[in-house]
């Protein structure tokens, strides 16, 4: 399962704070039943466009990873929770909205995981025509 979040508004001080983003990444896996395998890695990015600066980080979990990119000057945060097993995405979304005091979110849930790692019925896996996507037999 892959939860993708675009969050708007909210706590700009939180979005600017490396330590706060690190605590968020450190605590979220346990709160949604995931298993953290490393401590979070968090850094501040300052690029060529001044308003694009922000705090980015990730934490590897046994099930995959959680990543975040904040854009305080735009009052925007981008978060992905990617897991090879199902989780309560509503609980994750609620925690994220509460943590960052988000005023509005767009989110998408995409089914992915261990159930999708093998072709069904022995169908050969071949390279598709569109962007190198793997597809079944032609």
What does this structure look like?
It is built from three helices and eight strands. With 138 residues, it is an alpha+beta fold. The strands form two sheets. Strands 2-3-4-5-1-6 form a six-stranded antiparallel β-sheet, covered by helices on one side. Strands 7-8 form a two-stranded antiparallel sheet. The protein is globular and about 40 Å long.
Helix-strand layout with pairing:
Elements: E1 2-8, H1 12-16, H2 18-31, E2 41-45, E3 54-61, E4 64-71, E5 76-83, H3 89-100, E6 104-110, E7 126-127, E8 134-135
Antiparallel strand pairs: 1-5, 1-6, 2-3, 3-4, 4-5, 7-8
User: Structural class, please?
Assistant: alpha+beta
Q: Which outline best applies?
A: globular
Order of adjacent strands in the largest pleated sheet: 2-3-4-5-1-6
The helicity comes to 10-25%
Oligomer: single chain
Largest sheet: 6 strands, antiparallel
Radius of gyration, CA atoms, in whole angstroms = 17 Å
Mean pLDDT, nearest integer?
A: 86
- The number of E-state strands comes to 8
Uncertain ranges:
126-138
Helix/strand order: EHHEEEEHEEE
**Percent of sequence in beta strands:** 25-35%
SS summary, helix count: 3
N-to-C terminal Cα separation, in Å?
Answer: 27 Å
